[in-house]
Amino acid sequence: MKSVINLLFPKVCYACSNYLADNEDSICVNCRHDLPVTNFHFNGSDTVAKVLRGRATLQLATALFRFEKKGPVQQLIHNLKYKGHEHIGALLGDWLGNELAEIEAYQNIDMVIPVPMHNTKLKKRGYNQVAKFGQHIAKALNAEYVDDVLVKIYNTTSQTQKGRLARWLNNSEIFAVKHILKIENKHVLIVDDIITTGATLEACCNTLNQAKVIKLSVATMAIA
Q: Residues 133-186: pLDDT tens digits?
């Protein structure tokens, strides 16, 4: 029956757009094997931390993939953000979460917080593209997922074509913290889709640092 359905309504890989076989789901076997994983969290690389060095103090920092323009990771995240395929976030959250759960340092994370979207954009899209990513990482780490502490108070334009200074100015003081007692004395993992200049994550860290005795770490789907 499944073969008949796939014949009439063929499913495609969200990374390469090739047709999926009956035993494949969302990402084909070839892409799962060839996607540019970083392994930063396994090899102790500080590549992600370097992006924020001098701007945010982090305990841990990693990214699942390397992002390349017109590459499969861009296609994957494009399908997640703009084509309504929210379940891709869950798939990537399981992927990274299961890897982080193998590492002792990440087992000390108490809470996972997503980079928030402004309510206007959230209503338009219908979902925060990093929500399921964060939820599934939290589940893998036996951590709490919290999305009512860090909020976006100003709606900003797309970051895609902006330089480092423009991104920093665009993100400066656009986040706020609520229910601050929830995060005091906690090790918080902030999750996002892509880290480029680090301006958004810097602003999030600065906002969350209003809490007392807080430890901050970062995990993203990709690094550009």
A: 999 999 999 999 999 999 998 876 554 555 555 554 555 568 999 999 999 999
pTM for the whole structure: 0.89
Distance, CA of 116 to CA of 1 (rounded, Å): 41
Instruction: Provide CATH 3.40.50.2020 ranges for the chain.
Output: 36-223
Q: Is 158 exposed, middle or buried (0-12, 13-18, 19+ CB in 10 A)?
A: exposed
CB-CB neighbours of 8 under 10 Å: 7
Q: Which residues pair with 219 in a beta bridge?
A: 62, 191
CATH fold of 36-223 reads Rossmann fold (3.40.50)
Q: For residue 147, which of 121, 115, 123, 118 has the smallest C-alpha distance?
A: 115
